[in-house]
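User: I've been trying to design a sequence by hand for this structure and keep getting stuck. Would you show me what you'd pick, starting by listing the structure so we're on the same page?

Assistant: Good idea, let's start from the same input. This is the structure you sent:
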């Protein structure tokens, strides 16, 4: 089934002022939505980053796709690799690890692979999970993803979550998320405040939610010494400790002393990182992300590799919309070795580009859609509105640092400062 045309639509959606090691989320998060228009009226959907530096790479590939058979995925990858050559895409926020030619190709390919699989599913009348080998589970567990946050964006009214900078407020945020979505585990984005303050936050969560496994992720904001101290002080409290410190070697030094596994979406971000990381026993859990690991099938390959070395697997998330969540759910459902509830930013958004109802959280899990393809439909009006927001926002990249400096003029990213 051939591609007749490809439409790429940059979109923006409102995002609260969430804090992390690099600063604070801007008023809008950006995404790119792709529609592969195919023969027989079939349309395949994909979603990925909306930063201009990424979209520029995607745009180079668009003309090459006309006439491509959506069942030829190796050919699709070759076309992406040949078209991009030695280019390296780097994002400005620095929260998803290093950059390389292979990660750039994997990221651009992934966007089109998901859309091609969606198109295949529509053509065959089968859900994507079936094209990936079938269901290993009927529903996919997700974790509540807590952030410290400001109460309002600059010049705006306070949002419904309010300011969250204290343990009490954090517990309040967690209660709302757990009540609304039924999450059975909780992750805290750290790296925003002093580690002792963030450990107090984790202890307050442990008291309030004794049955919920907990994690903290400072995005490599800590030194090795601080990582070891946090691992010791939160021994028995955390199910895993995510990216306490930068780099495979630093992670290995923390891992040597930590009783809980270390997880990462920063130091193992492509297949070439696996050998050094596993050899040094730096990580016990890889947080996969199909958006840069080379799509849904490579995510499954990653899972098999991790399983061979007794390393756990879960999923990383960035601010995203429903097409991405659907892709995560299908691949997670088709991947037997998935050992922890996945991350999602879903509760933080208030709008989407897909028609509502296809993806619902029940007891913290999303049932795998059983309709053809990804099982989600674009809402054309919502897509148009989100594109207008993109144009109106004037944002062309995610830049948490510069936005933070509008709140705190002297702000410096917290990476390895503590
Ligand atoms: O949304 O601020 C955020 C997160 O910090 C995100 O950008 C990270 O990539 O969630 C991610 C993580 O687990 O590192
Ligand atoms: Mg992380």
């Amino acid at each position: 089934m051939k591609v007749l045309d490809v439409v790429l639509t940059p979109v923006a959606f409102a995002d609260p002022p969430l804090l992390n090691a690099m600063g604070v989320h801007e008023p809008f998060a950006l995404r790119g939505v792709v529609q592969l228009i195919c023969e027989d009226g079939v349309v395949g959907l994909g979603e990925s980053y909306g930063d201009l530096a990424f979209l520029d790479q995607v745009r180079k590939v668009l003309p090459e796709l006309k006439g491509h058979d959506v069942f030829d995925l190796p050919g699709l990858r070759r076309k992406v690799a040949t078209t991009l050559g030695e280019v390296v895409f780097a994002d400005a926020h620095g929260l998803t690890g290093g950059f390389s030619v292979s990660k750039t190709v994997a990221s651009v390919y992934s966007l089109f692979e998901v859309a091609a699989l969606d198109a295949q599913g529509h053509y065959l009348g089968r859900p994507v999970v079936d094209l990936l080998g079938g269901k290993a589970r009927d529903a996919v567990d997700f974790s509540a993803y807590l952030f410290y946050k400001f109460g309002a964006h600059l010049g705006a009214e306070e949002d419904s979550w309010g300011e969250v900078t204290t343990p009490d407020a954090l517990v309040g945020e967690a209660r709302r998320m757990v009540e609304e979505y039924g999450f059975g585990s909780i992750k805290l984005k750290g790296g925003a405040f002093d580690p002792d303050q963030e450990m107090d936050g984790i202890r307050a969560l442990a008291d309030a939610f004794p049955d919920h496994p907990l994690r903290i992720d400072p995005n490599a904001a800590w030194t090795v010494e601080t990582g070891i101290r946090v691992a010791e002080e939160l021994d028995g409290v955390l199910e895993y400790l995510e990216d306490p410190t930068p780099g495979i070697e630093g992670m290995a030094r923390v891992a040597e002393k930590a009783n809980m596994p270390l997880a990462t979406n920063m130091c193992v971000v492509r297949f070439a990182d696996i050998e050094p990381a596993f050899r040094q026993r730096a990580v016990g859990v890889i947080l996969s992300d199909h958006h840069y690991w080379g799509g849904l099938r490579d995510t499954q390959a990653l899972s098999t590799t991790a399983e061979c070395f007794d390393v756990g697997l879960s999923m990383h998330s960035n601010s995203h919309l429903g097409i991405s969540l659907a892709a995560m759910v299908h691949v997670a459902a088709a991947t037997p070795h998935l050992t922890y509830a996945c991350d999602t930013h879903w509760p933080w958004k208030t709008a989407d580009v897909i028609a509502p109802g296809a993806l619902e959280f029940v007891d913290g899990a999303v049932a795998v859609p059983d309709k053809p393809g990804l099982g989600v439909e674009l809402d054309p009006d919502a897509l148009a509105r989100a594109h207008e927001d993109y144009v109106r926002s004037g944002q062309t990249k995610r830049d948490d640092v510069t936005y933070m400096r509008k709140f705190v003029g002297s702000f410096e990213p917290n990476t390895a400062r503590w």
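That's my pick for every position. To get oriented when you compare it with your attempt: The pocket of D-glucarate (ligand 1) is lined by residues 18, 20, 95-96, 189, 217, 219, 265, 316-319, 343 (CB under 6 Å). The first strand starts at residue 3 and ends at 14.
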